[in-house]
Amino acid sequence: xxxxxxxxxxxxxxxxxxxxxxxxxxxxxxxxxxxxxxxxxxxxxxxxxxxxxxxxxxxxxxxxxxxxxxxxxxxxxxxxxxxxxxxxxxxxxxxxxxxxxxxxxxxxxxxxxxxxxxxxxxxxxxxxxxxxxxxxxxxxxxxxxxxxxxxxxxxxxxxxxxxxxxxxxxxxxxxxxxxxxxxxxxxxxxxxxxxxxxxxxxxxxxxxxxxxxxxxxxxxxxxxxx
Length: 226
What we know:
Elements: E1 5-7, H1 10-18, E2 23-25, E3 50-55, H2 68-77, E4 81-86, E5 98-101, H3 105-114, E6 117-120, H4 126-129, H5 134-141, E7 145-149, H6 154-157, E8 165-167, H7 170-182, H8 184-201, H9 204-225
Parallel strand pairs: 1-2, 3-4, 3-6, 4-5, 6-7, 7-8
């Protein structure tokens, strides 16, 4: 019954088209200006304090368990690393000393500005294919290097080893995190590249223009049909 369906990624668009919809992909905007306070030199300025973080909700924090073996290895190998998760409630993981933070819109910016690396593990299932990279894109906007499952929209969002890391296996997770922890310059370079990528691809004013163009097109079609 919809005149047009706006989908956050190509997989969602294709699902809608398969049901007969007139569907187009409209990627989600991200405002890097939320994170103006970020000092580009912050990332890795103190190698004795590196924060690996996760941002989400109580319904998605369970996906961290998929990479628990990798995180346990990292925690054991790099005792200087701090692990922080925001929004996961009372989530606990044996072998990984998570610091838990309650989510709030006001607190989200401060938490992200404290992260050096952001985690986004996902299960290999259709639900994950429908996700449009919100968590990873927010990390990137904040100058946080995303380390994500190599699935779905993440493959389009992240340029592997330039703006983030894409992982398929436990060894991928361990290797990617270890590289970022050990190599300050790599971490800084990727954080800057990720932030620039989001600013250029997902600026709210650009996405708004695309949204407006779609709405005008639908309105024009309606007028012609009358």
